[in-house]
Amino acid sequence: MKKMRFLVHLLLIIVVVAMSACSNTQSSGEEKKTLEVALWDKNVSPAVDKSIEAFKKQHPDIKVNVTYTPWEDYWTKLKTSIGGGKGPDVFWMNGPNFYQYTSSGFIKDLEPFIKNDSEYKKDKYFPAVVDLYTYQGKLFAAPYFIDSVGLYYNKKLFDDAGVPYPDENWTWDDIEKVGKKLSNKEKGIYGYSADIKTSQSVYYDLMHQAGGYIISEDKKKSGFDSPESKGAFHFIKKLIDEGISPSAKTVMETEGKQLFLSGKVAMIPAISVSAGEFKGVLGDKLGVAPLPKGKQKASIVHGIGWAMNAKTQNDKAAWDLIKALSGKEGEKVIAESGFSIPADKSISDIWLKSIPSLDLKVFLDAQEYGVPYPVSKNTAEWQDVETKEIQSAFLGQKPIDEALDTIAKKMNDILAKENSK
């Protein structure tokens, strides 16, 4: 009998506890949520972590998991997971993949959230990155930061060669002339790196500086076969042939950036995002100047946006997280970190002070003659052709002009299909 009373009493306790837990869940409004975040560059983690901590103070009931996937695997993993109906709630988006993800219905239109949010104003951000992430008149990724291209250089190598540092008056002739003085075959030092694997910071800029273009404004024609664009690639070949720049085979084995950081390259064109990383390795030996001009000045402008999974079950929380990352406070955090130029125009001056020893204004000034990163609906498809043909040409497997003509022909076919839909 006592045993029976004990069991009844125990059962009552369990029921009361269960009802209390249920009551607590209901009173809090909803069960604890988890937001999954995905991006590829760990160098931005201090800024991202700080913004997430601020978000969690406002949303203590929400857990946030951040996954960094190397660039080489990021897009394959992302597309597979989202295509399968899962994937992260919030993730980084770039220009080349934007049209594919929006047209496939993988990311959510942010306009309804913006319309109901008095704090978020699109006109606060640099127009180039807002336009980059606008599809059919609607914003699908919140601008986070922008980047442009400048000429980084190793002051010690310049001092050792007894030549003056680059400045705003430099042209392609200076790259060649000074590059020769800086190059030292015996020591394995190159004056300049024209790494043909890095399109944005190398040949895209040169194509525009030569008076050419990558894709026409109406997205209907390739510019790779224009005489001006071909001139840019022949300039690269000249630098390689004269020993001023590493060969394609060399940068296939050790990329230009690594050669620069190890003191084997004196000058390298690279995006603003590289400033913090380069400074961390080279310290006071690092300098930066505007890109030398050809027929004209040009610097490719790109930027990263925060996108929301179209199938997220927590869209309101995901929007609040995107705001914490790319709103005024989040933009201030990334500006102070020195990672890159914040997309919020009003915060850009803060970024200029993040690395006092570098003239970061070079990258802001580049916005004045900046060229938007080239994109179309199937950017990844024609860029795949572009990469294979250019590498083939510079590895000596075919003439450069033949490779560029092939790129243009295949790219025009891809663009024709895009425009016929």
Describe the overall structure.
It comes from Neobacillus bataviensis. Belongs to the bacterial solute-binding protein 1 family. Residues 1-20 form the signal peptide. Keywords: Signal, Transport. Pfam families: SBP_bac_1 (PF01547). The protein has 421 residues and is α/β, with parallel strands linked by helices. The chain folds into two domains: 33-147 and 302-352, Periplasmic binding protein-like II (D-Maltodextrin-Binding Protein, domain 2), CATH 3.40.190; 149-271 and 376-420, Periplasmic binding protein-like II (D-Maltodextrin-Binding Protein, domain 2, 3-Layer(aba) Sandwich). It has helices spanning 2-27, 45-58, 71-83, 95-103, 111-115, 127-132, 155-161, 172-182, 203-209, 227-241, 248-253, 256-261, 274-282, 315-326, 328-337, 348-352, 361-365, 379-394, 400-420; strands at 33-39, 62-68, 90-93, 134-135, 138-139, 141-147, 149-154, 267-271, 286-289, 299-308, 341-342, 370-372. Strands 1, 2, 3, 6, 10, 11 and 12 form a seven-stranded mixed beta sheet that branches. Strand 4 and strand 5 form a beta hairpin. Helix 14 crosses helix 15 and helix 18 (379-394) runs antiparallel to helix 19. The longest helix has 26 residues, at 2-27. The termini are far apart. Mean pLDDT is 91; it is low at 6-30.
